[in-house]
Specification:
This protein is mostly helical. The protein has ten helices and two strands; from the N terminus they run αααααββααααα. The radius of gyration is 17 Å and the shape is globular. It starts with a helix and ends with a helix.
């Protein structure tokens, strides 16, 4: 797997374009927040592309800081809140909707906690072995509960959803999570967000098939 400026830039451009099409197609229905996920991933990948472009040449410390914090804001706070909310908003089944509320609560807790660590510690980013490694001070006591809450917020809701094939989204995200943490532990944040961003195209495929079947 090649992680680089080119990879992030291509992912950013592709996701932004395809995501914009998805948002346009679904802006009037209950899946609009789910459909927006690839587009928002495109923005996040664009911020990492800026970091890739700036770090080797150290052209602007301010630009690196902005792109780093922007990327981590999405990774740490935005996704564990947005994903369960988007799935909850689209869910038509009342019982499942109430269960998803629990994942929203968990996402809010871990999101707020990670945002606190992000804003109260010295944050750095560096390119090491063809990966961007983000260094944020997080107490070891938070590792396991934090991972469980994060997975509960960003992966579990897809399995709870009653929409056809949404479990496929959860499955590929779970697999990419495991691969990222096993093979790329030091660069986990960057690598998993890249995998999740690329795999988010599956969301548009699933929504498109649902839309066609409803016609």
């Amino acid at each position: 797997m090649c992680f680089s400026l080119q990879a992030s830039a291509i992912a950013a451009g592709s996701l932004t374009i395809l995501g914009a099409i998805g948002v346009t197609r679904h802006h009037a229905d209950k899946t609009k927040f789910i459909a927006a996920i690839p587009f928002i991933f495109g923005i996040q990948q664009a911020s990492e592309a800026v970091t890739w472009a700036q770090l080797p040449f150290k052209l602007s410390a301010a630009t690196v800081a902005i792109s780093t914090y922007t990327f981590l804001f999405f990774a740490y706070f935005f996704w564990p809140v947005w994903v369960p909310f988007a799935v909850w908003y689209a869910e038509p089944n009342a019982t499942r909707k109430n269960i998803i509320l629990l994942t929203i609560a968990g996402g809010a807790i871990i999101g707020a906690t990670l945002l606190y660590f992000l804003t109260t510690s010295i944050v750095t980013s560096a390119i090491t072995c063809a990966h961007i490694i983000y260094d944020v001070t997080i107490p070891e006591a938070w590792y396991i509960p934090g991972m469980l809450l994060y997975v509960g917020a960003t992966i579990v809701p897809w399995f709870i959803s009653s929409f056809p094939k949404m479990w496929l989204v959860g499955s590929v995200l779970a697999i990419s999570y495991g691969v990222s943490i096993w093979f790329y532990f030091a660069a986990f944040t960057s690598v998993w967000c890249f995998f999740a961003a690329v795999l988010s195209i599956l969301i548009l495929v699933v929504l498109h098939k649902q839309q066609r079947n409803a016609l």
